[in-house]
């Protein structure tokens, strides 16, 4: 695997390979000594132009548990604040010998530009670019679904026949896009639930069912998984819905809606959560919720991605 830039071009077999590799990585994390020598001598740079807690810490933990050297780069306090271009930053990383660059950037397409530019020889891993994609988040979500729904029989499995309902701020969500492409490749049925103002233009041309009523979606889709998305107020420059109370009433997962889910249905959220807005505390803290499992599983999935990027075949672009 040369780069991991999106899930739209990630095929079923490659996705299952990453998920199965993550199973192997997860097994090593149950041992007393969690570190592996696999990437000893490799340098991984976390290049974050946007704030992050879970993703950055998860990638740092993953790289260190594979014995890589880790350099954390934040745009704040760096020469980026003085106007340094992505090209010049990349060439600096090339000069210090970076083997892999994990990049989060506010501009959609920045990781792809970095990977194809020739500025740097390192493998590039997209940790979220604008409103485009966040592939490792989708992979850890799929990993969590497989484990919860299939248990010990999850290895080698896709998600054929599974119904997933994704609710909320779809228009600003790179998580929703990456999940749609990955889950579809794995055979799942995906539905979006949102007010019309929070759906991207052209959504109805995608392989997804669209609902505007969460109650109708629960009744019609009978979801195995409901995934709530954070309202991204920092990306909103106009009113997308009248007020938070109306949003919570119409599209929030409250206790009555939680009770109407099927007995085995999972409740997922990529975090951070706005409790009382897109999800109630009862739903967030229920045994159905996988929020903390998603965080823990993220380390295993990112270990798998880094391992395949730096230890596997270096041909082509994933």
UniProtKB/TrEMBL annotation:
HAMAP family noted in UniProt: Asp_carb_tr
PROSITE patterns: CARBAMOYLTRANSFERASE (PS00097)
Quaternary data: Heterododecamer (2C3:3R2) of six catalytic PyrB chains organized as two trimers (C3), and six regulatory PyrI chains organized as three dimers (R2).
One Pfam family per UniProt: OTCace_N
Gene: pyrB
Lineage of source species: Bacteria, Bacillati, Actinomycetota, Actinomycetes, Micrococcales
Annotated L-aspartate binding sites: 82, 174, 230
Protein name as annotated: Aspartate carbamoyltransferase
Function recorded in the entry: Catalyzes the condensation of carbamoyl phosphate and aspartate to form carbamoyl aspartate and inorganic phosphate, the committed step in the de novo pyrimidine nucleotide biosynthesis pathway.
Reactions mediated catalytically: carbamoyl phosphate + L-aspartate = N-carbamoyl-L-aspartate + phosphate + H(+)
Domain Aspartate/ornithine carbamoyltransferase Asp/Orn-binding as annotated: residue spans: 161-309
Cellular component terms per the entry's GO annotation: cytosol
Stored PANTHER family: ASPARTATE CARBAMOYLTRANSFERASE, ORNITHINE CARBAMOYLTRANSFERASE, MITOCHONDRIAL
Family: Belongs to the aspartate/ornithine carbamoyltransferase superfamily. ATCase family.
Pathway: Pyrimidine metabolism; UMP biosynthesis via de novo pathway; (S)-dihydroorotate from bicarbonate: step 2/3
Chain residues that bind carbamoyl phosphate: 54-55, 104, 134, 137, 271-272
Keyword DNA-binding applies: no
Top EC category: transferase
Molecular function GO labels: amino acid binding; aspartate carbamoyltransferase activity
Catalytic activity, EC: 2.1.3.2
């Amino acid at each position: 695997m040369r780069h991991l830039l999106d899930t739209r071009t990630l095929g079923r077999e490659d996705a299952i390979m990453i998920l199965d590799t993550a199973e192997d990585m997860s097994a090593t994390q149950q041992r007393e000594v969690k570190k592996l020598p696999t990437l000893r001598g490799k340098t991984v740079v976390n290049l974050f132009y946007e704030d992050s807690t879970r993703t950055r810490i998860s990638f740092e933990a993953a790289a260190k548990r594979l014995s890589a050297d880790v350099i954390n780069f934040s745009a704040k306090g760096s020469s980026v604040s003085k106007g340094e271009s992505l090209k010049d930053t990349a060439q600096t990383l090339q000069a210090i010998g970076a083997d892999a660059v994990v990049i989060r950037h506010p501009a959609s397409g920045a990781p792809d530009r970095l990977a194809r530019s020739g500025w740097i020889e390192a493998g590039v891993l997209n940790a979220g670019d604008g409103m485009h994609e966040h592939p490792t988040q989708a992979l850890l979500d799929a990993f969590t679904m497989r484990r919860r729904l299939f248990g010990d029989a999850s290895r080698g499995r896709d998600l054929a026949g599974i119904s997933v309902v994704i609710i909320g701020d779809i228009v600003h969500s790179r998580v929703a896009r990456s999940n749609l492409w990955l889950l579809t490749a794995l055979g799942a049925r995906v539905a979006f639930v949102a007010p019309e103002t929070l759906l991207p233009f052209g959504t109805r041309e995608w392989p997804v069912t669209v609902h505007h009523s969460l109650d109708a979606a629960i009744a019609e889709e009978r979801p195995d998984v409901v995934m709530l998305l954070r309202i991204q107020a920092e990306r909103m420059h106009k009113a997308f819905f009248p007020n938070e109370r109306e949003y919570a009433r119409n599209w929030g997962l409250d206790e009555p809606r939680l009770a109407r889910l099927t007995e085995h249905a999972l409740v997922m959220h990529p975090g951070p959560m706005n409790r009382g807005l897109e999800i109630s505390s009862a739903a967030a803290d229920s045994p159905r919720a996988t929020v903390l499992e998603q965080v823990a599983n993220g380390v295993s999935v990112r270990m798998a991605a880094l391992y395949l990027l730096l230890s596997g075949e270096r041909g082509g672009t994933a």
